[in-house]
Amino acid sequence: MNWLLFLAYVLVMTFSPGVNNITSMIYGTKYDKDIISNYLLGIFSGFFIVMLGTGVFSLVLTESFPKMQTYITYICAVYLFFMSIHLLFSDVQTSSNHQSSSTRMLLVGTVLQFFNPKVILHGMVAMSYILPHYTSFMEMLMFSLFLAVVSYISCKVWSLFGVLIKDFLVKNGTIYKLVVSVLFATSAYLMIA
Fold first, then answer.
1. Do 120 and 51 touch, CB atoms closer than 8 A?
2. Which runs of consecutive H residues, i.e. helices, occur in 89-172?
3. In a domain, 152, yes or no
């Protein structure tokens, strides 16, 4: 497994703007430490469940239909290439109108993961890197935990430095989009090369 490519994908996908990061940034500037901690713990637990689910699903699928791994890899590469093009021509969004009850942040953070297409697709693409090399349930569990921890760290960074990141993205949006687009396109190419 190309660890450098895998880690680059994980970091770009996890730290790039998405529902988890944007809401963490907004809630980090809006709520106190205990409330945002519950929200981040909810994201962590939901993310872990989704990663483990996509990993087990992908493992069963590729063991049942070995040729599916090739198709899954190509589908994931096309998705990454699409993401690079989409990001390159999109506006950098640094705000959201998403609002939530401050009393149920753990549940909100957890449930959000099951309806977040970025998380589900992230799991499928990450597993397409992992599955050709690691196939036991324990390995899948450890990779799922690793991906959830990276997601938690990403959301924590976005919540703690939300205002700073927002200002940076507004000032450097074009450079950010170009760099992340090239990284997505490179990852897509290297997956199928």
1. no
2. 105-114, 117-130, 137-160, 162-171
3. yes
Q: Residue 101: which H helix or E strand, with range? A: none
Distance CA 43, CA 45 (A): 6
- The answer to whether residue 49 sits within a structural domain is yes
Note the pTM of the prediction, 2 decimals. Answer: 0.70
User: How far is 88 from 12, CA to CA, in rounded Å?
Assistant: 14
Q: What is the pLDDT of residues 114-164, one digit of tens each?
A: 887 788 888 988 988 888 888 888 999 999 999 999 999 999 998 886 656
Domain assignment of residue 13, yes or no: no
Structural domain including 142 reads 32-89+103-192
CB of 184 within 8 A of CB of 83? yes
